[in-house]
Design a protein that fits this description.
The chain is an alpha+beta fold. Helix content is 37%, strand content 24%. The protein folds into four domains: 37 residues, no CATH class; 59 residues, Phosphorylase Kinase, domain 1 (2-Layer Sandwich); 33 residues, no CATH class; 51 residues, no CATH class. The chain contains six helices and eight strands. A three-stranded antiparallel β-sheet has the order 1-2-3. The chain has a three-stranded mixed β-sheet with strand order 6-7-8. It has a two-stranded antiparallel ribbon with strand order 4-5. The structure holds iron/sulfur cluster (SF4).
């Protein structure tokens, strides 16, 4: 058996708990039976990365019967060594929460209510509005006649849910449009 930091921590934790309980006179049979019924028992471990910030802590996702059942910090990853901040620790709820949005929601100008829209409608709206804004606001030259080719009325906020490759494509598309106002949710 190959020992990793994680294996060691698991074994040390389990041994310490059993020894302590046994020394206190508790019968550990029930606790052992309970441990085998934990929700991650028999689950497949998939290594992934926390999507919330640039630290990129590694996580272990437990998948059982095709469904995510738990996430935890990876003790073997040198950056986070098993720990996660409050956002990363709540990662599982991003998947399981009943508050999670799974369809586009739209609130029309001056309206106070949100309505559900399909993706085709949403993408058409986004494309239409970007095109209209660019046609209306594109600046070819500055006040001294120098070529600038920029669009100041569109702002882009990036997300760490996007991979490096996706970010590169998005960045190139924005540059092509002339968008100069860009920021990223993971900037610290
Ligand atoms: S949000 Fe927290 S857990 Fe996630 S990568 Fe950043 S520091 Fe790590």
């Amino acid at each position: 058996m190959a020992y990793t930091r994680r294996t060691f921590l698991k074994m040390a934790g389990a041994s310490a708990l059993c020894m302590t309980l046994a020394q206190l006179g508790f019968d550990t049979k029930e606790a052992r039976a309970y441990a085998t019924s934990l929700k991650i028992e028999g689950a497949k471990e998939v290594h992934s990365v926390c999507p919330f910030c640039a630290v990129c802590c590694q996580i272990i996702a437990h998948v059982k019967d095709g469904r995510l059942v738990s996430t935890e910090g990876d003790p073997d990853f040198p950056v986070n060594q098993g720990s996660l901040c409050a956002k990363g620790a709540a990662l599982f709820t991003m998947y399981s929460s009943h508050h999670r949005l799974t369809k586009p929601m739209y609130r029309a100008p001056y309206s106070s209510s949100w309505v559900e829209k399909d993706w085709d409608w949403t993408f058409r709206q986004i494309a239409r509005r970007i095109k209209d804004a660019r046609d209306k606001d594109f600046i070819r030259t500055d006040s001294r006649g120098r070529t600038v080719n920029r669009l100041e009325s569109v702002f882009s906020m990036g997300t760490s849910h996007a991979s490096n490759e996706e970010c590169a494509v998005i960045h190139q598309a924005l540059k092509g449009l002339g968008v100069i106002h860009q920021d990223h949710q993971a900037r610290t």
